[in-house]
């Protein structure tokens, strides 16, 4: 999962930094700062979530494991819903007639990367 998040953060940082740099070419540090803040969202969120979960139960208790499993399942469902309801339709709208192969290459390669990284955990 960590590898998937790291791979995901690269295009996310680029997607944030390039528009900031285009809007303010005189301040390249601003685009770096905005991309860095965006990249810190996942680790900070994970830290605060673990602190919140540890308040109610000891680390080794089964209730904490149950809570983490349910939270991860909930977040995975949200991510799938966003991808299916928002990202895929937008990618289909933006795809030209002869460029469908790039849509499918990106989709299939993303699934393969996530499956392979899950096998090795």
UniProtKB/TrEMBL annotation:
It is found in: Membrane. GO terms for cellular component: membrane. It is a multi-pass membrane protein. It holds the Pfam family Zip. The chain crosses the membrane at residues 29-51, 71-88, 100-120. The keyword Transmembrane helix applies. The keyword Transmembrane helix applies. InterPro entries: ZIP (IPR003689). Keywords: Membrane, Transmembrane, Transmembrane helix. One of its GO terms (molecular function) is zinc ion transmembrane transporter activity. This is ZIP family metal transporter. It comes from Eucampia antarctica.
């Amino acid at each position: 999962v960590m590898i998937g998040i790291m791979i995901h953060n690269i295009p996310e940082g680029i997607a944030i930094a390039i528009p900031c740099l285009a809007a303010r070419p005189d301040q390249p540090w601003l685009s770096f700062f905005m991309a860095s803040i965006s990249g810190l969202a996942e680790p900070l969120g994970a830290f605060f979530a673990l602190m919140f979960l540890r308040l109610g139960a000891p680390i080794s208790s089964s209730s904490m494991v149950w809570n983490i499993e349910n939270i991860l399942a909930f977040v995975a469902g949200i991510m799938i819903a966003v991808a299916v309801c928002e990202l895929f339709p937008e990618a289909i709208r933006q795809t030209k007639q002869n460029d469908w192969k790039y849509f499918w290459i990106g989709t299939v390669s993303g699934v393969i990367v996530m499956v392979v990284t899950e096998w090795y955990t």
